[in-house]
Amino acid sequence: MSCPSKSIVYNGSQCACPVGYLLNRTANICELFSPDSTIATDSGVDYYTISFPATIFEFDSIKKFTQSQAVFLEATLVMLLSWLVFCLFLRFTKLGNDGRSIWFKMRWWVSRLDISFATRHWLEDQKVVKKRKTELGGTFSIASWILFIGLFAALLYQIIWRRTIEVHNVRASNAPDIAAFVTDMEFNITTVSSMSCSNLRDLGTLVTGNPGFIDYRAVPLSNFGNYSCQNTSEGPTIILKCQGCQPIQDNFYISWQFTDLPNNPAAAVGFQFNLTTKNHYSNKHVSFVTGTLKNGSSFDDRPVTFRGNSTNILKFNLFPRIFRNLKDLRIIQPLFHEFVPGSHFYDTNQLKTSLANSNDGKLNTTLYVNFLSAYIVEVDNQNIMGPVSFLADLGGLYCISIGIFFYLLVQCEYRIKKLRNEDSVMRSIRNRRKALEHWEKLRKYVMYTWGCNTLEDKYNNSTTGPSCSGRMLHSFSRKGSTRRQESRDVQIDLSRKANLTSIRKKTAVPETKSSVPGTVVDIEGKAHDRDEPPQKNEVVGSKDDGNQQSGRSREGNSSQLEALSLTNGIIPPPPTLELKDGSEMDMSDIQKNLKSLYEYNFMLREKFLATQSLLNELATKSLSPAKNGDTGNS
After folding, report:
1. Cα–Cα distance between 541 and 384 in angstroms, integer?
2. Is 286 within 8 Å of 276 (Cβ atoms)?
């Protein structure tokens, strides 16, 4: 029979794998044994009932991420930085002078969000504290609330998920406490090798107590429970089972050994173990410890082969636990304590020498279990979050959120003087825009009521002269019907320049009522129908000689009117308007100028009424000779 690949030969014809190699019987080759040496331990109590499959994605990391406060803190940080960057971007945009740009509106509404620092802005000495809303205050107010809400969400998570903590209380045990532990235990010890259960010897003795002391005892292993050996792909596995085990001594030992067989030497490259315990009356919770031992308790990772008379000792601890939060569940927790390696080899030549020596043809193994029965660990949940502590934490988070950004606000306004009065700049722009909007409403109302084209919708873009020159002011009804002004119509000249630098005024003698009902007299003394516009060369009356005399009378009256206007009709100049730059002009200045114009127009009205009375008298006198002439001709 040929030897496996990568094997060594000893005693001339026998085969074995080199140091650290394990025989793969399927491929008939010696392979290097390089297992994962992680020791896994589980208490058997899991408070999270929902479990995710570990083979699909990284659910463990996702679960850990979603069940931590990091997700709330990271989301808060992202929102806070986004808000600050947005407000910083708005700071670099231009406000404009008209207050109609989208950037001004956005910055204005940011300033309206100043809800936390409206009364805490920079003040000069001896100034009255008043509410001021600035853009910087709005930025820091919302930032403080974003931080507070994020921290508050993290606090709520802590209250919901971590409102209780697991408290471990260690107390001394007595006999009744230990007697209450009725446990099912199973020990699986696998010797990783090419051996089988045929190599097993001397399994069947249980030693309790310490050698040399009065409590030392050696009893059959069957008193402890059932035991067996099972061949596996990794090697022979020793199985010890105990159903409803009663309390045992503080420590006990179980030993066994493997011996050489032809072409099957007693050698191993490692040990695997799996110890499980559970309550005899409940199958819900199982505690276990499992792992692989390769090269002792040190961090030496060199390939090794165990063989010889020295015993390999696997040490485990068992300690009782009572879960008060799970209806006083009593369970024994196994823990791996130490591995003490026996005879072993790192060199292949030394292994060949040992394989050739029949005295080294043994592999001794001892299972050492220490039952820590002197103390009992009691596990319970304790509530750490009450109403008073919650309110204290909430108040602390609010103070921290407000305090951080209030400090930044004070520092910014202290070091940058431009930020101290930025609210007045924005208010002046907005007030000017509101004043212009109100003026637009007033202008449209005047245009709609009196129908003057000077106040048309193109007012803002107009730079030309008067457009109402030589027109009659008419009054329009709401439904669009027209009516004539019966008392007087004034010919005016309005300036449409936006800067209001001057007011030009031209006066014309208004129409006067005629003595004949339904007619009016124009400036030349001609009478015409009230509902018809006057014609330039129209003459009222017959076309005889009396008309010429009447015409001469009208010419005389016209000369008298001109003389009157030059002597007695002196009109004072218009009032001087207070004009300022667009940024300095406010509503009070506009109201003051309108009041001056109103008083000036009232004075003009009085003079126009006096002139109208005089013109009526002159018109009556001029019409009397014309009527007499007509009567004589008839």
Report:
1. 114
2. yes
Identify whether the C-beta of residue 189 lies closer than 8 Å to the C-beta of residue 290: no
Q: In this predicted structure, what is the pLDDT of residue 593?
A: 82
| Average pLDDT across the chain, whole number | 75
- What 3-state class would DSSP assign to 442? helix
Here the tokens at position 129 are: 């504290």
Number of C-beta neighbours around residue 226 at 10 A: 12
Q: Bridge partners of 60? A: none
- Look at 541 and 275; give whichever has higher pLDDT: 275
**CB-based contacts of 27, cutoff 8 Å, min separation 6:** none
The span from the CA of 203 to the CA of 198, in Å, is 12
What type of residue sits at position 429?
I
Q: Which residues contact 188 (CB under 8 A, 6 or more apart)?
A: 237, 238, 239, 272, 273, 274, 275
DSSP type of residue 295: B
Distance from chain centroid for Cα 543: 95
Separation CA 29–CA 39 (nearest Å): 29
Q: Measuring CA to CA, which residue among 176, 180, 186, 369 is closest to residue 278?
A: 186
pLDDT of residue 373: 84
3-state SS, residue 512: strand
Q: How far apart are CA 326 and CA 344, in angstroms?
A: 46
Name the residue among 33, 527, 53, 534 with its Cα closest to residue 268: 33
At 362, give phi and psi (nearest 5°).
-140, 155
Write out the DSSP string of 315-345.
EEEEEEEEEGGGTSEEEEEEEEEEEE--SEE
d(CA 428, CA 112): 15
Question: Contact 246/223 with Cβ under 8 angstroms?
Answer: no
Q: Tell me, rounded to whole angstroms, the distance of Cα 258 from its chain centroid.
A: 67
Distance of alpha carbon 309 from alpha carbon 362, whole angstroms: 6
Distance CA 535, CA 341 (A): 135
Please calculate the CA angle 256-257-263 and round it to the nearest 5 degrees.
150
Q: What pLDDT does residue 420 have?
A: 81
Kindly report, residue by residue over 464-489, the tens digit of the pLDDT. 444 443 333 333 333 333 333 333 33
- pLDDT tens per residue, range 9-35: 888 788 888 888 888 888 888 888 887
Q: Give the start-end residues of each E strand in 413-542.
A: 475-476, 482-483, 512-513, 519-521, 527-529
CB contact at 8 A, 353 and 337 = no
Put residue 463 in one of left, alpha, beta given phi > 0 → left and psi -120 to 50 → alpha: alpha
